[in-house]
Amino acid sequence: MHKSQDPIQITSVSRAFGETHALKDVSVCLQPGAFSVLLGPSGCGKSTLLRLIAGLDQQTSGTIHIGAKEVTGTSPNDRNVSMVFQSYALFPHLNVAENILFGLKVRKTPKAERTQRLTRVAEMMGLSALLDRKPAQLSGGQQQRVALARAVISERPICLMDEPLSNLDAKLRTEMRVELRALQQQLGLTVVYVTHDQVEAMTMADQIIVMNQGRIEQTGTPHDIYTRPATTFTAGFIGTPPMALFDPADLADGPLPDVRQPHLIGLRAEDMHVAPSGPSARITGVEYLGADRLVSATAGQTRFIMRMPAAAPVPPSEFPLGWSPEAVSVFATNGQRLTQYDFPTPSLAQKDTTHETA
Amino acid sequence: MIKREWIYAWALLLPAFVFLITFTHLPAVQTLLNSFWTTPKGRRASVFTGLGNYEQMLTDPIFIKAMVNSAIYAAITIPASIVLALVMALLVHRSFRGVGLMRMSFFTPTVLPLIAVANIWLFFYAPGFGLIDQIRLFFGLPSANYAGQPDTALYSVAIVAIWKEAGFFMIFFLAALQTVPQTLREAAAIEGCSRWTFFRRVTLPLIMPTTLFVSVNAVINAFRLVDHVFVMTKGGPDNASMLLLYYIYETGFRFWDTAYAAALTVVLIAILGVVGIGQFFIADKRVHYK
Lengths: 358, 290
Ligand SMILES: Nc1ncnc2c1ncn2[C@@H]1O[C@H](COP(=O)(O)OP(=O)(O)OP(=O)(O)O)[C@@H](O)[C@H]1O
Ligand SMILES: [Mg+2]
Description:
The structure holds two protein chains of two kinds.
Chain A: E1 8-17, E2 20-30, E3 35-39, H1 46-54, E4 61-66, E5 69-70, E6 81-84, H2 96-106, H3 111-125, H4 140-153, E7 158-162, H5 170-187, E8 190-195, H6 198-204, E9 207-212, E10 215-220, H7 222-227, H8 232-237, E11 244-246, E12 263-267, E13 272-274, E14 280-288, E15 292-299, E16 302-309, E17 318-323, E18 329-332, H9 346-349
Parallel strand pairs in A: 3-8, 3-9, 6-7, 7-8
Antiparallel strand pairs in A: 1-2, 1-4, 4-5, 9-10, 11-12, 12-18, 13-17, 14-15, 14-17, 15-16
Helix pairs in contact in A: 2-4, 3-4
Chain B: H1 2-34, H2 52-58, H3 61-92, H4 99-111, H5 114-125, H6 131-138, H7 153-177, H8 182-190, H9 195-206, H10 208-224, H11 227-232, H12 244-254, H13 258-284
Helix pairs in contact in B: 1-13, 3-7, 3-10, 4-7, 5-7, 7-10, 10-13, 12-13
Bound molecules: adenosine-5'-triphosphate and magnesium ion.
Adenosine-5'-triphosphate binds at residues 17, 20, 22, 40, 42-48, 196 of chain A.
Transmembrane segments (chain B): 7-28, 71-92, 104-132, 152-177, 198-220, 259-282
Family (chain B): Belongs to the binding-protein-dependent transport system permease family.
Pfam families (chain B): BPD_transp_1
């Protein structure tokens, strides 16, 4: 029932609120059965895009197709999607069972079927013992599960989620990440998930859509986005610490591609190391993280952070900087990646299997 | 040292106590006591009659008329003003051009003194040249004297009370509606819930505490607000618009039968007490408080 063959195709969609342009000419295809994450800083238009897909808001221009059907102008109910809200949006006067069954009752599903589906979903979500409680008598994590159960019981193939974990504490969030991902895989749901937390995006997504100021910066697997950011924005937004961006002059006489135009060199913290020889760098600080050490340093004018194993000795205050040539990203001065300088690495072409759950 | 603090506490409370006891509790007790005695007249002193005043009520046709009228008046004004208030609140609980003006015009009757309201309505009702009569005459209907005819007098004062009260209750409903989160509406819309179903299944239960509060107020007002009766009908014609509180006033301050008026007052308070407490107990089970 859940499984969907319908992709969500968004074509040249814009949404303006008066003078504010929340979305500017956004086009993207969200694959059926995939966990797609809309990721970006606050105010970049993630929620706006999700609400357009849900039908809670109408785009100023552009089209949205679910499968072959153009859904522009249709009501939320006709789009056959379910949604989990950041605030959960549970009905405070109804108990857990009534909350979960709300949609089925509204749609006049027969009583026997309702009971059967409720039993199954409550079991799946670990809510069986809580069915008589009011939302106010539940913990944040339990409320979250009720909101999720309400989406799951609808058996609609597409589930939209707007920062569903942001009200939970760190430990619960980690647990729920795993649960959510497992649930999505088990049911074959098409999930569109909004977050500004890159850890959530990295750990759960099949496909990440990085957004910035109402535009899509990059679409790709977590691995693509991390190792080959398409723009300097993505390079700076993804990763803790973010990718360091060097003026090539600061890295002179290192292993650099031969680029015939003004450009920037991007390097991940873990791709740099202390080398026998190379451009010289000066340490400004060291942060000990247990397994790793983050070394802050400057090379010429560029400040950067380098990650090294805690077991390795702390480098001297002045050291020669080295890096793996295949990890180099080259960006034009307008921020776009110059893909012609990408190092051909066959391993990257392989299927990303990090999230396959048995 | 504790003793000293107690003295301070009592000293601070004393002024309030003095005024409360002198102007509220003593008169209340006095009223109750008076209701068991006869009214002193000329040289005839007041004598104890026990329940005599209450027995007199059972055979007093005006009292019975006033009770029936009050019941009809309450049965009309309470539900009508609550429903009207809710409808008005729903109308102005959204944004469109002129919503501020609309809210203000709904609320204006509340700000006006009831006496002034009654005068406005007297003009509406006035036979011959009043607003309603002009409309009637325009459509070729005969002139009618709504406030002056026994069969319509009670309803014409009831309408004035509804007009006056609905705006006030609307403010409470409007505030309550604004506490219903927008995301609940959206969550329901995703499930395919119509606006009417949402209103019935979500909005109405969530504003239930306000509805209870408003209905208790409406009950009290139905017995308490009679200012417009003074202006419009004086309980007439032929006691057609006689209400319990107006009858108490007439008995006590026009006929100076203070003992009988005291007994009537006790009856009024008993009715209000029973209805008010009953409302809370019955409704409490069905009201969802946050
Ligand atoms: N109803 C509205 N009226 C006016 N402006 C709006 C409205 N909704 C959103 N915006 C604007 O559109 C832009 C994008 O908002 P949106 O809610 O999509 O951001 P977001 O990416 O979800 O951010 P966050 O991570 O903080 O939730 C913001 O600049 C916001 O101020
Ligand atoms: Mg948002």
